[in-house]
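Reproducibility note. Readers wishing to regenerate the assembly model reported in the main text can use the exact inputs given here. Chain order matters: entities are listed in the order in which they were concatenated for prediction.
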Amino acid sequence: MYDPTVARLTYRALLGRRRALILGALPLLLIAISLAVRGLAGADDQTAADVLGGLALATMVPIIGVIAGTGAIGPEIDDGSVVYLLSKPIKRPTIIYTKLIVAIAVTMVFSAVPTLIAGFILNGNGQQVAVAYTVAALVASIAYAALFLLLGTVSRHAVVFGLVYALVWEALFGSLVPGARTLSVQQWSLAVAQKVSGGELVTSDVGLTTATVLLVAVTVLATWYAGQKLRSLTLAGEE
Amino acid sequence: MTTLSIDHVSRWFGNVVAVNDVTMTIGPGVTGLLGPNGAGKSTLINMMAGFLAPSTGTVTLDGQQVWRNEAIYKHIGIVPEREAMYDFLTGREFVVANAELHGLGAKAAQKALATVEMEYAQDRKIATYSKGMRQRVKMASALVHQPSLLLLDEPFNGMDPRQRMQLMDLLRRMGDEGRTVLFSSHILEEVEQLAWHIEVVVAGRHAASGDFRRIRRLMTDRPHRYLVRSSDDRALAAALIADPSTSGIEVDQAEGALLIQAVDFGRFTALLPKVAKEHGIRLLTVSPSDESLESVFSYLVAA
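Running the prediction on these inputs yields the following structure tokens for the assembly.
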């Protein structure tokens, strides 16, 4: 199911270009802001939760997810170099599954790790806030990577759609329309984080069971469908 | 023995018919797929390579369906026309990756790189390669698993004459080894130099098929039109029309030239300078007026 060569090509494509700069810039920004907040306001659990919830989980994780998820396959399909993967006796779902693993790993490294660091800077993991949001970032990384990998497979405008979903749906729409939150990767991951922290600082609008079922369902379905789409991917000629 | 069969294949994109009811069989040896730009060659090759589903009809390799059949790529090597190819890798890394994707190792990759004579630049990044070098590395990546069918889309585009010769030699060798090699081109001379067998497509239709000499004859037997300017057009016209190789001459006053229709191409081209010399006429312009490839093709389609 996992092809190390496909993985190597994907890692190098993801981390070798300008994309790596963007991937690195956001975590650095989060850590810089955390340092500033800690320096100006001191250690405060609520502030730590606000920064990690509002900035790390609601903004940074989905954006990193968009970059890694769509970037794991979109550019190859766009420029046609995916032909070198498709002209091999490798099952298409294997290509998707491998790229998913890479996208998840990259999203986790560039979002969960800085979230943990930022959490420790902000309040030294008081009330388990840092760990809870890190778990949320890890869980969200999986679902985002799967969703955005699918988007990268089906659309040439995957980055735009991905950012619209991440920023408009998750951040804006979700905060205005309560029902929209049920269908939000962020809320699902918060439900898991809530269980971890056990406190009142990390809360979700969705129950843990619902959240887990939806997380698994979205990840599995998106991956399966991406594999199917890749099987029927049409490479148009240049004529 | 590998045979690629295209059976009543059509492909349309919306309202546009790119390939229209094409049936052909490609066997061992080198076959040229000839047609003007936009004739549907790439669409046809993409269907042969399993990258595009035919709207109707089937493409099979030794009886096996090509579309949605990953296992078929054990037998097919593909050299796409598009340039994009993991530019951040070195040539060697790229070919090794392609070998690994076939379940092979660095040894197979090295052999393929040697076949295309790219060992000298194998450790340079592909981004720094010239078009001809890219083409050769693409070729190596298509050869790593010793495929029995090799598909090449416009492989000579952008190559200099020496690289072109090298690639032609290589393809000829592959054909001699009994592999089935199909390449597309819009340049008649390329196809003529290399292919034993040609398939001509024009406007999505299969226009001709067979030995290139027969098709070439069809092309050369047709009347040729020339535009000629000389120091004495009327004297030249009178001398030429006496010969049976010329079927008609028109004096174009506006252009200040003769429009000559020749029926015997070989004889006419030998006659013209001879007649001019005998009559002390200087030839100022001799240009074939309908030699563009499109007119050759349209003539073929009508034949």
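We highlight two features of this model. Residues 79 and 152 of chain B are 5 Å apart (CA to CA). The mean pLDDT of chain B is 88.
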